[in-house]
């Protein structure tokens, strides 16, 4: 029988063997009787035989495996028996053979028995210690060293775990990955890994390998660690052996993989030294191994539905793959090379240039740099322009080491972006002599000059000198430069990356590429961001009830259009910020505010043109009949004032408000807010002048469906009748025209028209809270009330109108506004100030000139369609709400019962943050993803968000 070739027979259902079958085989062929327990296996059948005195493992091989292959596994055990590594021993059958042919229901199979190794598998350890990880690496390296000389005809086999055919395995099995988002990610990662491996294939060493020295197959026992499961023994790449071990570690340490990987690889290297090709190939092989695990696990579950072992492994196999694919291969290679070859002592270095430098010579290319304002960082010349500006002011310019450069940020990123500089650039327009900071050999290597010293190397770009290799002494002049980039390295012969992602702790990089401050006679090191420390300081002095997004939030210090940037210059799609209507950092708004601050900012009791210009514009935009404007500081203040206007105008106190709504935090606006998500005691703490009516929630309310308006209005009739029976007259009714707090849930058609008719018939005032949903955000309508076909008596707006500036407004009729005189005059210190008025005017101008309401239609409708398509494939998506760029994705555990998926919504938001998108839950159950980005969002960014959400939902 020929040895197995997976490419010819990729489907391997396990043999049909029951515990009774195993009991009979063990007794009849091996003379073993006792308790029988099945053990996990991907494609064979393994059973624990406990005789009461000893324990053994009965292994029934898949019929596709030849006798030679099984004997090769036994040979590997024999070779390692004297190596000091604890491995199982072969138990002979009663007839004396190692391998017994058995017939089970007409199928010819091979049975073997091995001794059972006591101990607990490392896979059961949630977070292995450094010592345990090094043990794993040492065992893998020891096994590889022990098997290096093994030759056997059964080793010449082609299994799905052979890294040499990893690409073919992915090709064959990818179709078994059900979700398209996961398939795309696996395909892309595998292709990238294969491309890096291609030029290395001929240089990778082939030998006998165990193939699966992983956390599953390492047991930690009282007599020491041991290795089990030699079922994958075959010829293969030595680097592939290590890749299998490393991959198995990643699901244990998803948040901090680097130290773990370095420990495992270093321990392996001590027993089986790695060469240059191995190190270059290792991380692509880890990614490829992860991809093979994912596709193989999905295929095995499809083939063998009752294979609990394969099914349970899928989650951590995906996690391992996901961790691997997110780590930059160049970065990991550089860290590995340094760990395995770094000299013990770092020598001193002298000056590289004799320029006198001071802090004003340092260019700021970070997210805080003023040179990057107004989107300058998006230009290809951004760094050149910033250096030129510093040179004009200070004579020469120097960039900073360890600085996360905004100029390197990538919008709509799909992974971490390499923004952190490990080198420093000097710009000296007059030219400068360059000196050797230490003795060594200077040579031109791949277009850069390399000064090789004792335990240290210096890479130089931009050095002008004769194209000759030279031995130089410390302090020798080695050339000149106008722009010189310098990078120190402690990894001989290999230049570290010029820029790295923030994935690895920066301390690892300072060891690889040390701080070059001594070269320039100036501290050129950037301050390393400390988001956790900043959060602790916030909590020390800022009231903790003023919540923040995320348990471990990024430190956001810049925004541009519909993206936010943290101090590591990582971008985030801002999908939650309806406060920033026209986008972050808009140059027109910045300039307008700067100019107005320079001229005047005071309060609205003074007379200035900007106020009347702004209120005229608002009145023009308002529905017919609403012609008078109050300007305030916030949405809460606007709602508070609207309630007072209704009460003063009618001479009554009672206001009707809908359940589940949120209107603000002032005493008045909070009184009409009943969202349990914002206040769990809301329903029991409303003041007596507030009467709550049923929320017209057509999805999960007391009446459901698009035609439920009539039922809700009938309930309102009952509520009004009850009030009249008590002699209570209604001052007004307040509601959002679109249920913003529920994630943009549309009200049933005709509902508000029926409500307004009833309230006005009783002399009441109708208030539309448009703070969240109005002002063009719906795209198809400027005002939310237009969607319901009604005109309110009072409209409240805020958030969007100021683009982040504290600004709100109440728009009403002249009659209602003048009635407030009964309570005296009205005044809001910052409401309607010159700066606030200019902000409001500029927001309106930008919305008009950049057609942002139209963009809300075009991009919003496209995004809504993408989200609904996700709902067709992901059962967790119960509904997609909203219109334009006020959307909500309702997550449920059961669509029929609409059970809120609250925990899952939180997890989705956390994972979306890792994908580079900020989204948050809303609603009484915090299970609705609220999607309300700046109106300038592009179709491309909307697609990136939908793709990210697709992947997150597919991998929960």
Number of helices, where a helix is a run of at least 4 consecutive DSSP H or I residues: 26
What average pLDDT do the residues reach? 95
| DSSP strand count | 38
The separation of the N and C termini measures 44 Å
**Main beta-sheet strand count, sense and barrel state:** 7 strands, antiparallel
Strand order of the largest sheet: 12-14-19-17-16-15-18
Q: Return residue spans where pLDDT drops below 50 for at least 5 consecutive residues.
A: none
User: In which range does the helix fraction lie?
Assistant: 25-40%
Global Rg:
35 Å
- Find the structural class using helix and strand composition: alpha+beta
Instruction: Estimate the global geometry from the Cα principal axes.
Output: flat
Describe this entry's structure for a reader:
The protein is an alpha+beta fold and 956 residues long. The chain is built from 26 helices and 38 strands. A hairpin with a 5-residue loop joins strand 37 and strand 38. Helix 3 packs parallel to helix 7, helix 7 crosses helix 10 and helix 8 packs antiparallel against helix 9. The relative contact order is 0.07. The mean pLDDT is 95.
């Amino acid at each position: 029988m020929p040895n197995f070739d997976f490419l010819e027979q990729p489907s391997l259902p396990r043999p049909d063997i029951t515990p009774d079958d195993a009991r009979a085989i063990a007794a009849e062929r091996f003379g073993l009787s006792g308790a029988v327990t099945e053990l996990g296996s991907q494609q064979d059948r393994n059973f624990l035989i406990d005789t009461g005195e000893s324990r053994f493992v009965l292994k029934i091989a898949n019929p596709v495996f030849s006798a030679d292959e099984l004997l090769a596994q036994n040979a590997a055990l024999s070779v390692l028996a004297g190596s000091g590594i604890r491995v199982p021993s072969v138990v002979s059958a009663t007839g004396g053979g190692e391998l017994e042919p058995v017939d089970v229901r007409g199928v010819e199979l091979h049975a073997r028995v091995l001794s059972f190794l006591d101990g607990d598998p490392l896979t059961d350890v949630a977070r292995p210690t450094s010592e345990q990880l090094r043990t794993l690496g040492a065992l893998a390296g020891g096994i590889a060293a022990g098997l290096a000389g093994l030759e056997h005809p059964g080793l010449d086999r082609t299994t799905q775990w052979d890294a040499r055919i990893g690409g073919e395995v992915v090709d064959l099995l990818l179709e078994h990955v059900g979700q398209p988002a996961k398939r795309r990610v696996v395909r892309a990662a595998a292709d990238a890994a294969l491309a890096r491996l291609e030029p290395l294939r001929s240089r990778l060493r082939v030998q006998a390998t165990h193939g699966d020295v992983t956390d599953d197959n390492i047991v930690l026992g009282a007599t020491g660690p041991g290795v089990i499961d030699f079922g994958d023994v075959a010829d293969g790449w030595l680097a592939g052996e290590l890749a299998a071990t490393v991959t198995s570690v990643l699901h244990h340490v998803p948040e901090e993989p680097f130290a773990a990987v370095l420990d495992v690889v270093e321990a392996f290297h001590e027993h089986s030294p790695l060469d240059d090709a191995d190190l270059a190939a290792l991380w692509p092989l880890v990614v490829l191994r992860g991809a093979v695990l994912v596709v193989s696990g999905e295929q095995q579950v499809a083939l063998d539905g009752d294979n609990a072992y394969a099914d349970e492994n899928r989650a951590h196999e995906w996690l391992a793959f996901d961790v691997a694919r997110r780590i930059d291969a160049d970065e990991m290679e550089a860290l590995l090379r340094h760990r395995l070859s770094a000299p013990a002592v770092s020598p001193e270095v002298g000056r590289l240039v004799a320029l006198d430098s001071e802090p004003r010579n340092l260019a700021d290319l970070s997210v805080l740099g003023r040179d990057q304002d107004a989107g300058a960082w998006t230009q290809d010349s951004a760094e050149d322009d910033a250096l030129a500006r510093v040179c004009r002011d200070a004579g020469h310019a120097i960039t900073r080491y360890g600085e996360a450069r905004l100029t390197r940020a990538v919008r709509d990123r799909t992974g971490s972006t390499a923004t952190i500089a490990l080198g420093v650039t000097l710009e000296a327009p007059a030219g400068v002599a360059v000196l050797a900071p230490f003795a060594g050999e200077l040579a031109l290597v791949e277009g850069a000059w390399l000064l090789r010293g004792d335990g240290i190397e210096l890479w130089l770009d931009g050095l002008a000198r004769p194209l000759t290799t030279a031995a130089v002494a410390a302090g020798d002049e080695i050339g000149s430069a106008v722009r010189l980039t310098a990078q120190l390295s402690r990894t001989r012969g290999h230049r570290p990356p010029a820029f790295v992602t923030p994935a690895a702790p920066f301390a690892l990089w300072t060891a690889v590429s040390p701080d070059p401050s001594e070269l320039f006679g100036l501290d050129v090191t950037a301050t390393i961001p400390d988001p956790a420390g900043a959060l602790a300081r916030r909590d020390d002095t800022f009231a903790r009830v003023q919540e923040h997004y995320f348990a471990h939030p990024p430190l956001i210090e810049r925004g541009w259009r519909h993206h936010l940037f943290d101090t590591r210059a990582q971008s985030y799609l801002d999908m939650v910020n309806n406060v920033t209507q026209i986008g972050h950092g808009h140059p027109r708004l910045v300039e307008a505010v700067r100019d107005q601050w320079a001229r005047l900012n005071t309060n609205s009791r003074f007379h200035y043109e900007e106020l009347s210009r702004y209120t005229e514009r608002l009145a023009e935009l308002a529905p017919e009949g609403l012609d008078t404007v109050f300007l305030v500081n916030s949405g809460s203040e606007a709602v508070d004032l609207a309630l007072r206007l209704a009460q003063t105008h009618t001479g009554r106190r009672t206001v009707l408000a809908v359940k589940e709504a949120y209107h603000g935090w002032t005493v008045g606006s909070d009184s009409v807010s009943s969202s349990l998500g914002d206040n769990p005691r809301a329903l029991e703490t409303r003041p007596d002048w507030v009467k709550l009516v049923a929320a017209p929630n057509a999805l999960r309310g007391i009446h459901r469906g698009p035609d439920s308006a009539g039922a809700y209005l009938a309930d309102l009739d009952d509520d009004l009748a009850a009030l009249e029976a008590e002699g209570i007259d209604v001052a007004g009714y307040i509601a959002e025209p679109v249920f913003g707090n529920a994630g943009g849930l549309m009200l049933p058609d005709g509902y508000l028209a029926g409500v307004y008719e009833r309230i006005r018939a009783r002399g009441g005032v109708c208030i539309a809270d448009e703070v969240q949903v109005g002002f063009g955000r719906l795209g198809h309508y400027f005002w939310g009330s237009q969607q319901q076909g009604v005109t309110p008596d009072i409209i409240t707006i805020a958030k969007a109108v100021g683009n982040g500036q504290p600004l709100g407004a109440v728009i009403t009729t002249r009659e209602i506004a003048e009635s407030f005189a009964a309570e005296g005059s009205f005044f809001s210190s910052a409401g309607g100030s010159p700066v606030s008025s200019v902000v409001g005017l500029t927001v309106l101008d930008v919305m008009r000139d950049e057609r942002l309401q139209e963009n809300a239609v075009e991009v919003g409708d496209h995004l809504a369609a993408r989200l609904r398509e996700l709902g067709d494939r992901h059962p967790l998506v119960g509904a997609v709400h909203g219109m334009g760029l006020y959307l909500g994705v309702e997550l449920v555990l059961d669509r029929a019962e609409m059970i809120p998926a609250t925990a899952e919504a939180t997890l989705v938001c956390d994972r979306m943050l890792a994908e580079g998108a900020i989204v948050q839950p809303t609603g009484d159950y915090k299970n609705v993803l609220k999607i309300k980005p700046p109106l300038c969002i592009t179709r491309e960014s909307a697609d990136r968000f939908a793709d990210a959400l697709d992947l997150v939902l597919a991998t929960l």
